[in-house]
Amino acid sequence: MTVTLPEGDLNGRLDHYLEGFRGRHELQEASVEKNVVRLVIRPDLLPAILTTARESLGVLHLSFITVVDLEGSYELTYELLDLRGGTVRVKTTLEGEEPVIDSVTRIYPTANWHEREAYDMFGIAFKGHPDLRRLYMWQDHFDHHPLLKSFEISTKRTFEGLR
Amino acid sequence: MIREERGAGEQTVEERASGRLAGTAIRDEFGLETLDMNMGPQHPAMHGLLRLILQLDGETVVRCDPVMGYLHRSKEKISENRMYPAVVPITDRIDYMNNIAMEYGYCMAVEDLLEAEIPPRADAIRALLNELGRIMSHIPSIGFLLLELGAFTPILYAFRERERIQDMFEAITGARMMFHYIRIGGVKSDLPEGMPERMWEYVESLEERLNPDFIDLIEGNEIFVARTRNVGKITQEKAVEMGLTGPPLRCTGVSYDVRRDYTYGWYKNLDFNVITDEAGDVEASYRVRIGEVRESIRMIKQILEALPEGEVMADLGRRIRPPEGDGFGRAESARGEYAVHVVSDGSDTPYRVHYRTPCTVNMQLLQEIVPGHYLPDIMPIMGLIDPVSGAWDK
To answer: Which element (helix H / strand E) includes B60?
Structure first.
């Protein structure tokens, strides 16, 4: 069982990825910049687009998932690498108090702990995740999600009190 | 929670004395007994603070569930509340065996936001220290693997090498572990006088010592082969699926190295090979690490031969205030792909910093490959992944 990684000219490959996404899905924004294919999508399309990336275009590696708390909404960045210089960066925004998004563990099994971390730190529920427990914080008796902007660290409070 | 499930409160003294607290016997559907056991978080052979909840059938592991967070220091939250330059010493403490790569990734992410030009000498010094740091991390990790298998000598040789490299780092940066040397826009100071010659002399002597002190001692040793060959076997597909990077990926034969495939800094001027191995077991990961030490020595020599002159710090002004947007930095640490994502809102402090540490991702492998192995094989498998507590817990 061997893995075949993409070969050939990088710019041509990136254009191929961009056309592949454009032809199959409805995208809000799509561009190629500095060896990165940037996509902005609706959250409900995420599993379909990542399936296209892995199964049809051969982008095999999910590097990380970043969540940014924009106070009112959450911005999620999925960074996919083809391991040969090309990057696909998928951005989507979740609205509302109780954010829910489809899990991508069936497409990229490595997303398992990335999603557990995002759930732990931001309280984002990943629908269809096989084992959605906290990764770092206590399993019981701890109701906070520490990386939310509403969770203030104690030293900051002290500074405000001193001022 | 676990205590309640086991009904620890209701146990009589006799039951406790018979060892019921250490583990609970459970009968599976065939009437066979399996035993739940905790390994860690404080275990003499464990790489830091990790707790593994194991289900054992005899001496074979049936289920392995890693529990992390015992060294969680909330690096990402701390980074959000500090000014940009003050985050660099925080990144030092993520992977404390290979700090230089951690600083490097973060500084690249901020420089990506600032679109800063780095002077060539600073770039060369960064790559030089990064490779030295890789040797400083790989050689003790080989020593630890052997220590866990019961060989005490290699760790002594390994720490002798680490000590000598630390002496050089002390002369360059002023610190032995938490360097805070790579800064946003360059490096803290130029190399001290005579340092390139001393470094050249050191790597030449290390190259000579590699064979008698490490390879002859380890390779082909009967116990080493028996304990590591075909242990922790991973296929290429599994490795890519699990998102592995670094030596655990390359020991299966997938040739991926951030330094070559997503090249950065001075690495585009260097000529080096990406070491791979076909076997995909613990022994192969050892061979990859030794091969990478040799490649690092080659790279250090190439950098020293053509070390450019000039400034070591770009002039970015006293106050670093990047424009709004995203900055990405990606570096090859000794354990795999390390990536930093910095989000700026135009103020003095980052809005969000995300660290992708290779250890966290590579550790998912434990759940997948430990079941089916014997209990004592867990330690060599940990040697394959070579995680660092500070890096997986952030």
So the answer is: strand B60-67
